[in-house]
Structure formats: C-alpha cells, structure tokens
Amino acid sequence: MLGEPPRPVRVGVLGAGTVGAALLRLMARHPHLEATAALVRDPDRPRDLGPRPVRVTTDPDVVLDGADVVVELLGGVDRPTELMAAAAARGARLVTANKAALAERWDVWGPWVRAGRVGLEAAVMAGTPVVGPLAGALRGSRLRSLEALLNGTCGYLIGRLEAGVAFDDAVAEAQRLGYAEADPALDVDGIDAAHKLTVIARLCADPDLAWSDVRPTVRGVRGLTPDAVRAEVAAGRRVRLVAALEPDGAGGWRTSVEPRSVPADHPLALLGDGRGALVYRGDAVGEVWIAGPGAGAEATASAVLGDVLDAAAGRPGPTPIAERVWSATTPS
Length: 332
Fold this sequence. Notes:
Strand content: 15-25%
CATH architecture of the largest domain: 2-Layer Sandwich
Number of domains: 2
Radius of gyration: 20 Å
C-alpha cells in the first residue's frame, strides 16, 4: 500500500558463538535489518545477543525459512557448505567468514561467488579490508607479487619466542588467553593462513586455483625455537609466517606459507607485529600496504555486517578475477 514503510531485510544467522553474538549486537544499530533466527548447539546457554529479541534454535530450517540474507559463522567445511547450498536454493544472498569452506569446496562456492551472491570480506584478516581492494581498485594494476601475515596466533607465538618462551609454553599461553584453540594445529601448521591465501589468490591471480595445489606448499611455525628466532632479531631481522604469491618462473604463480626471515624494515616486520598485514605489488600501483586487526570477534563481526549491509542494499559481492593473470616472467 502507498506510504507503507519498506519491509525489513530478514537475516538468518548460522552460528551464534562469539562472532555471531557480536554480529547480532551490531545489527541492532540498523532498524532495517531483522534477525529472524540464529542456529546454536545449546539453546539454553546464556548469550548476549543485543537489545533486540532473537530466536535461537537447533533447527537450521528455522533459520533459512524466509531469510533474505543467510550468514554462515559455523566453521568447518562440509556441513556449512550443505546449509549454504540450501540457502542459495531458496534464493537468499550469502555471507560467510568461512575461509576453509571457500578454499576447499570451490566446486560448490565458486559459482555463487562468480555470480556476486557471496559476501566474504571477513574470511580474510577479519575486519581489515582486503577482499574489497583486491576485487576492486587493485584490479587496475597487474599483480607482481603478494606477501601477507594471515594468522594472528602465529604472530603472537613468534613474539613469545622472541621473549625467550619455549614453543609449547607459548602455545599454552595463547590457549589460556583465547588466541589459540584447544587443538591449535590449523594455526600453528599454517593451514588457516593457507586457506586465506587461496581465497586471496583467486581474487587477484588465478580464479581456478585448487586447494590441492596450495596445500603441499604449507609449512607452519611448529618447530621454531627461541634461540633461532632471537638469533634473527640479533642480526637485525624478524621471523614471520609469510603467506606469499610469487611468479613461478613459467608464467604462473607459486603459493607458499612458511616462516621467513625478513629485514627489520620490511613492511611485514613494521606492520605485522601480532596484526594482520598484506603487501600487494602491482605494475601500475607499485607497493600497497594494508594492515589492521586480523582476528577478534568484534572486528570480524564488523566485516560480516558490512557484507550484510551490501547484500541488503542489493550490491553484488566480490567476484574472482575473470581469468588467470600471467606472472611478470611472461610477456603481456
């Protein structure tokens, strides 16, 4: 009827843990967003979901039913992908922070991302904008190389090794402080960073990059010692877990995730002490640094909310680069 206010945009949230709860609190600032329901494992557990009532449920169909936008914050690979496939089939726009699912199940996620149906800024470096620039302004330049710090837990651990703390003790500290999971393998073995690197590479270098090609190039921080790390500091260098995308010498790209010794004045040493950081080098733009919080519930929720607002406004999500970019060793 003429004069009626527009219907609120209905948002279903799959996962109301620390990030999901923070998202719901932030969404309360936006009256045109209506949280229809949130999927949880234990509906009786106390949660701070903000000032507006939110239905919690263990039934994903309750979350998906009638949602205009579905947000996935569950973690894991197969189950979240199945649920988002159901949401996509119902016509919903999709938002996710799930780098593992994006990296490993590109066969399913790829068509949605190519169609601009997925917001995924929070999948890489939490609230620090990386996906948007790589899928937008930086496309005006041709990639030459990229280096990034994509895992804050490893940054913290290396800092503790510099202070002389043994590796296992540093991991235990990180777990007590909430920086590392009970099983820290995804972080310390470099898998988390590799998932994020895969997402990044598809945006700026190779839209068809397979996870199976990235996985063998991954080496984490397990095995680093205080003596080795402190020796680098004494030599005017710093150790960082660097995720890199570099020319392979044959016109393609080589991915790697590994501890590297970098000069103390390297951008990743200057910007990346416990934070997320990325250095993009392009032929036209030169060197671009991006740095900020690479983790944290509020920071991640902020990026997720940005994607929700874009979806609510009908703006398309980021898309992969149209075709593989030839690396600098190959003539244009």
